[in-house]
Amino acid sequence: MELHAVLPDADPNSLTALAREAERLGYGGVWLPDHLLPPEPYGPVYGGVDDPLIALAAMAAVTERLTLGTSVLVLPLRNPFVVAKQAASLARLSGGRFVLGVGAGWERHEFDATGSDYATRGARTTAALRLVRHLHTTGGAPFDDPHYGFAGGVFEPVPERPVPLLVGGVSDAALRRAARTADWWQGVRLTPEAFAAHVARLRGMTDRPIGVANRAVWGDDQPVAGIAEEIVANEAAGADQVAVSLVSSFTSVAQVADRLRTLAAEPSLAHYVSPAGG
Fold it and tell me: Average of pLDDT values for 44-67?
């Protein structure tokens, strides 16, 4: 199992500094959340202010081996043709390290404010994922779909391999979407027991190999031993990856970097990290 981190941001230098530190400490990857136009300030609920795809490009330039991903991009709020091109570009710039994590969205305010249809978000998310994979494998061949069908064109850059797709969410609809279209499924703040139950349901929906991950939150008042115990329990529950969110604890870059170091140094988690030069 790999240990990853979901990062906060507050200034132009925080994300690149934290990405470099995570790589040095041996984390497997870092992830950024996404909200386009939330009804309340960014922070523990709505994540960081920077566009995750642009921010990840900056992080790709200062790292060499970290997986870089979105956890998760609210796909039905965005043009999927543009997302496909951004994802392919990120894959090329990062040497194939980008994972496109998406969700259907839950904050209705964002859909209403941006003129996007909330009722069809699930169907459009599934269709958009199919489109992204189609463009990444055919380079723009005609695509038959009621939402995003087109007669063909030239799509570049075509990745050396299709960008891995991750579907986040704990609903049955999210599990079905992952079973149909994704390479990864990510639960959100599930207990290890609930995570195992969701994985069992997912496995029952498809014979395709799908990696499974859980996103945990390390709160301000939780001792490191507590989050470490949760991480270990997730592996026992079948997780291939746990991404620990540090968004809620953000006060400064130094404070989050210290939390990254504290977690990586926890003895029970030593086999989940591979420090540079170690």
Answer: 95
